[in-house]
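User: I'm new to structure prediction. If I give you an amino acid sequence, what do you actually give back? Let's try with this one:
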Amino acid sequence: MIERKVYSVSQINRYIRGLLEMDVILNSLWIRGEISNLKVHSSGHIYFTLKDSGAAISAVMFASYSSLMPFELENGMDAIVCGYISSYEKTGRYQLYVQLVEPAGAGALSVAYEQLKSRLEAEGLFDEDFKREISPYPDTVAVITSPTGAAVRDIINIVGRRNPSVRLIVCPVLVQGENAADTIVSALRDINEYKKADTVILGRGGGSMEDLWPFNEEKVARAIFASEIPVISAVGHETDFTIADFAADLRAPTPSAAAELAVGDSTAERRNIEGLFERIFINIENRIEYESEKTENMFGTRILRRIEERTANLAIINDQICTRLNRSIENRLKNTLNSFDLNIEKLKLLSPLNVLKRGYAAVFDSEGRAVCSAGTLEEGDGVNIKFFDGSAYAEIKKRDYSDGEKKEDL
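Assistant: Good question. You get back a string of structure tokens that encode the predicted 3D arrangement of the chain. For your 410 residues, that looks like this:
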């Protein structure tokens, strides 16, 4: 009798896993289906189901692969995935291990572009209310672009022709490649930190969607939105639209157009000002000529002669009024002075000094109060005796009362 060989569940699951991984077809294949039951773990791993009208298969995409995707997976997305079939030994379930995902019909970059555009637009980064006005006559313009490209040469030539007094600051950055977005963000932050520019031009020449992709990255869009200095976006050709164009304060179809939008034409403005002054001078001359003719015509009319006669009569009346007014003022002033002199004489007669000149004196106590009665004084009090020509100081030795009851020598 043949002896039975008994396997453990783990052995069978491991054996099945080995078979699946050794299969040529299942080891690397492309599968198209609709994504559903999408779950993104905090670790970055993505779990979903790939299904069609008749079947479904569980799928997992580890963070090491999902982090490389330029777009986000969504439920209902029609996708083509690349990976391999294997089983999870603990449960015995087989599943698809995804390494690459492409949107079916549309390119990955196009999907990523539309997803980011929709999300930033919902946040308000593209709202017109946040757009700042571009100064037509800046002192300094900062240009963020490649220092060796045609775009920077076009900008320098156009700005120099339109207004040579404008100062240009060229901030060299990478405009394509893996690190381009970081250099653009760093340049925008530096310009805002030092506040040395009135306007920023951000751009590059044309290229494929892959070449222009740094201007579609979220970090660049947020740096543009956060800039305190107005930003003009000039990326690619007129038909190229990037996320940076929507986030900027103004979009220019080309770098050359950005230079024209950033700097006003000083020559044209000078001609406009000269033309304006010329029109003003012509209007002034015409008005002077018109008023002169009008005045000459008025001098020959009867109305003007009446006005002249009336003016002469008013001048005579005015002279008469002034004469009477002056005479009245002189009389009033003379009477006022006479009255003032009389009042001065009266004040002199009432002055206490005149009384003192007749042999009288005024007595004041030590505090300067007038002494009106001998009863207010005590022996030993000091008094100040005021004469018309000076003062004398004395001390009370005795008092004499005028009623005769008690008399003492002072």
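You can read the tokens as a compact description of the fold. Here is one thing that stands out. Residues 404-410 have pLDDT under 50 and may be disordered.
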